[in-house]
């Protein structure tokens, strides 16, 4: 009996660790070569990325050993803390990043640029998951009225977060939160009529937004709603990239040329020739496509899908509704970011500035992702 308990306590999910380990190694490798081609110090860039990898890995293993009941009790406080961090940006934003981007999204902590919205993603997933579990226990016999009340409650809890995202002008990250909320609502078994109505509303809003972008009257409305010119240009560049190849669509067109030049097997790491702006971050996948071709890009995508499967499988195996909801939220957070980033790189979607999980430059994004994965590693059959 003691031996069995010892084995359960020391059980480690190596199947989940494998894709994460490969992604982290690939991230350091890619950052080295991207810096090399951009005539930056490749060693410095690789070491910087490696530092974030090590910090994220330490945090992941630390979170793994936090007891589930402690996490359960800390969830609302973690969510409030993340909101306070985001609210503090109004007063304590990083002036250097504000000068570069004209947005207040980063804090400067001892020279480290920190983006609170990345931490808020994990906090939001935990909070919504807990509320849904409490609802399932509180209302065993559900109907459309109780489900509607729950959706209203979730919307109310989400309001401060989306207000802060609106103030920070971070439309791309807002879409991540919307995707996570939608996925958790569907996973919780909310009445299909409510889901259909919400889906219809989202479709109408999306279509209306696209319509407004391409009319002078609509653009004036969007401007009054604090949409910036660069955000509108991203839509225009997405629809007609080669029409604006030397101006607002330069990044997209260069990305398409880079991926196209990679062919089936790529030009090789030392054969990259097409310059793509910001390829260390938003456009990192274009480097993969050019250097390693269709085969290499497909391998990276398959690695992502394997990771998503392992996260889902871990949640289901845990036999815990709370864990399953957490896994659904984390998977759809990563799926949306991956789909949007790669889609933008190959011209299927407009650019939103969303990084590619693991591979893009950005310490906050990587560390917060590792934080979320630490929650997955902490799941077991007794959770």
From TrEMBL:
It is found in: Membrane. Its main location: membrane. The keyword Transmembrane helix applies. The keyword Glycosyltransferase applies. Pfam families: FTSW_RODA_SPOVE. It is an enzyme of class 2 (transferase). The chain crosses the membrane at residues 12-34, 46-63, 75-93, 161-187, 194-214, 291-309, 321-339, 359-379. This is Peptidoglycan glycosyltransferase MrdB. Keywords: Cell shape, Glycosyltransferase, Membrane, Transferase, Transmembrane, Transmembrane helix. One of its GO terms (molecular function) is glycosyltransferase activity. Its EC number is 2.4.1.129. It is a multi-pass membrane protein.
